[in-house]
Design a protein that fits this description.
The protein is an alpha+beta fold. Strands 6-7-5-9-8 form a 5-stranded antiparallel β-sheet. It has helices at about 20, 30-45, 65-75, 115-120, 130-135; strands spanning about 5-10, 50-55, 60-65, 85-90, 95-105, 125-130, 140-150, 160-165, 165-175. It has 2 domains: about 5-90, Alpha-Beta Plaits, CATH 3.30.70; about 95-175. Helix content is about 20%, strand content about 35%. It comes from Dipteronia sinensis.
C-alpha cells in the first residue's frame, strides 16, 4: 500500500521560530485535543490514516491512498476549525523545538495554582499545558508542565522564585514524552 504524506500544522506562530520556519510552514498552537478531534472525524468517514507527532508544532498524517489524502486536504470542514493550514510533506522539515514534560518539586502549597506553574514553565519555554492532576492537586509533592522548548535547549535544574518578600527554589527536571492522538 502506498502512503501519501501531508503535514498538518496548528494555528499560532511561535515568535522564537518565525525567522526559521516562515518559508516552510505556518506554525500553531499545540493542542492535542484538536488533533484527536480531526482524527475522530477522519475515522468516522472510514479513511485509512495515521498521525505522528514530528516535533515542534508539526503533525504528520499518512494516508492509505492518494484519494484519501486529497479528500482530507480538500475537505476543509474536517480541519478548518482546528488548523490554519495543511501542507504537503517535505523531507526538508526539520523541527526546531520539542515537547517535554517538566517535573516541578518544591512548590509551596499556597502557590499551587495554574498561574504559578505557567510562570515556572515560561522560564523553560512555551507552556502548552499544566498537567490535569497537577491542577486538581492530586499530589502536592510534585507537579508537571508540558513545555515546548528549542531543540537543543536544556531544562534548568533549579528555578529561583521570589513572590513578594518570600524566596524559594523549584527543582525542575525533564521527563520523556509520549504523544498519542487516538
Amino acid at each position: 500500500m502506498a502512503w501519501w504524506y501531508t503535514a498538518g500544522l496548528l494555528e499560532r506562530r511561535w515568535p522564537l521560530l518565525d525567522g526559521i520556519v516562515e518559508d516552510l510552514l505556518y506554525q500553531g498552537n499545540m493542542d492535542f485535543t484538536s488533533v484527536s478531534n480531526v482524527n475522530n472525524r477522519l475515522r468516522t468517514r472510514g479513511l485509512s490514516f495515521s498521525s505522528i507527532y514530528l516535533g515542534d508544532k508539526s503533525i504528520l498524517w499518512k494516508f492509505g491512498s492518494e484519494f484519501e489524502r486529497d479528500y482530507f486536504v480538500n475537505s476543509r470542514f474536517l480541519w478548518d476549525d482546528r488548523f490554519d493550514s495543511i501542507r504537503k510533506w517535505a523531507d526538508t522539515l526539520n523541527p526546531q523545538a520539542r515537547l517535554v514534560w517538566i517535573e516541578c518539586v518544591g512548590v509551596p502549597t499556597r502557590f499551587w495554582n495554574k498561574v504559578f506553574f505557567n510562570k515556572v514553565g515560561r522560564h523553560v519555554g512555551e507552556v502548552v499545558m499544566v498537567e490535569e492532576g497537577t491542577l486538581f492537586k492530586k499530589r502536592l509533592d510534585r507537579g508537571w508542565i508540558l513545555v515546548l522548548i528549542p531543540r537543543n535547549h536544556l531544562c534548568p535544574d533549579l528555578i529561583k522564585v521570589k513572590v513578594g518578600s518570600e524566596c524559594f527554589s523549584v527543582k525542575t527536571s525533564e521527563l520523556s514524552l509520549s504523544v498519542d492522538f487516538s
